[in-house]
């Protein structure tokens, strides 16, 4: 049997319990050995349900467990940086949920601590390692759609529950941090460039004080990207790529199904058809792929899929989008 990285899970967060832990347990290089919760009973219950050997009643106890190599951090957004720093100081590698930080200053701190403790840290953009995104990038780089000039993205769902972490401003809530980060990450990934300017429009919920409808245009050296992220609209997601010869759409770009193949749709100009050709991607669980890619980077001492330097680019764009909405002007992402 191949060597596996021993993972500890920080909290009983929904995304961990429902998706990431079961997916990592299916991995070749990942083994989930412990979970911690602020409430010991919750930790024990989830450990029982998911067959995790050890349950801790505090995050500190998890970090003190010397048998653990790496931590998965799916805490609310405002706790990503402080707890990721505590993990690094305990000598653990960290895969931290998006958005890993709320501003570029926090990212500088993460980079400094990572350098000091010589551990691996990455942002959990599971899309980055999904074969449908790797294939889309390959097709575009090979010139399948001609010269890529324009990207359009849309990501929405409806959730106005004031108790949800996404709707608590001090927790780093709002549409841009929660889902706007995905079209930004994937536009930067596909162009392979950083935007030089952004302009945006934001509608804040008057009671919750978080952004609920955010649109932005990103100016890249090779073209333009625009997207809308919304937390109080019907559920929808798409990413579309427009080239000089064809257009391309990733059908389910972010919440890719784990029980059926994904599709990349191509259209060579027949506007009466949704697509004129399809590239089908073999069924996979993107969270298994993500966990194994991170574990393998540790085992082989390679770069993790989304290192902090990449996160810095994304966070700078988010910062510039918030600023542009305030100033009403183009802003340059800086870091
Ligand atoms: N990559 C993806 O596909 C994806 C999908 C959804 C969410 N996410 C990210 O994952 C993170 C968690 O999202 P989620 O929806 O799973 O959150 P959630 O269910 O609300 O879980 C957050 C967990 O954090 C712990 N926690 C510690 N301090 C807390 C506090 N002050 N308030 C609330 N919870 C606290 C709690 O666990 P204990 O009580 O056990 O300590 C709680 O269960 C977010 O950063 C989100 O952006 C990523």
From TrEMBL:
Residue span(s) of domain GFO/IDH/MocA-like oxidoreductase: 134-248
Signal peptide range in chain numbering: none
InterPro entries: Gfo/Idh/MocA-like_OxRdtase_N, Gfo/Idh/MocA_domain, GFO_IDH_MocA-like_dom, NAD(P)-bd_dom_sf
Domain Gfo/Idh/MocA-like oxidoreductase N-terminal: 6-123
Domain of life: Bacteria
Keyword annotations from UniProtKB, A to Z: Oxidoreductase
Record family assignment: Belongs to the Gfo/Idh/MocA family.
Protein name listed in UniProt: Gfo/Idh/MocA family oxidoreductase
